[in-house]
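Pasting as-is:
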Amino acid sequence: MSKVKNFRTSFYYKYLKAPSTKFIIYFILIGVGYAYLYPLLYMITTSFMSVEDLVNPTVNWIPTKITFDNFARAWKVLEATKSLLNSAYMSTIPALFQTFITALIAYGLSRFEFPLKRFWIVLMLATFLIPSQVTLVTKYMLFSRLNLTGTPFVSFLPSLTGQGIRSAIFILLYYNFFNMLPKTFDEAAELDGANSFQIFFKIVFPLSIPAMVTTFIFSLVWYWNETLLTGLLLGNNIRTIPIALRDFVSKYSIMFPSADGSAANRINEGIRMSATLITILPLLITYLILQRQFVESLERTGITGE
């Protein structure tokens, strides 16, 4: 063991701590960061540009005059106040349901033995491989027969029964996390007279906060950006902000017709970027608030046990 440790130490100081290696690592990180941040920075700067700046080839990043007219028009076309509220409860409530239910399912798979357990785990993972478009018609027929189309229950019920968006990934995440937790916790609680539900709610579930944070953030983002199922099952009864963004161009042309040839009413790139920024801004704010917990959750999911 000492030889292996010495080899690792020498390799670390000889190669990973070398200036050339540091330069390569930082170069790669900066390049990847630029590739991810460039669209966001371009979106922010363009959304504050006026029509004159957009057609001026000398203006690339910094606008000569900051304007908020783009946001005003985009907000009006998106009906952002109503659409943001619809998106908030149509994504937060299913995300909370999914965070809890998938943990309960994974706990049962991790702690209990039953016939064909491996088969059910494989079948659960196979549901993730099936594209959502394949089951789209059957889902619509099911909710239509239950008279639930156009109601929030088309999102609430699947998440409440472990069939939400990409629930299989979260079940697998909890399953691996619970397997790393020492089973001596459960045994000690059983000696004190606790049943399975008490063990889950009072011991296992509080210890799974790192996995809970990861599950909630990803669920929130996926439910927020979902347009295929919500557009078909909700229709025009509940319009979320991504649905409003999808129909942004056609609705803008109706609200601000440019038949008179006026360039003021003509849709431009600044208005498009403003509408897109309004759509993703709540997610950016949520991530900035939960950034620390999210990073810590990714680190803590590597905990090992018996």
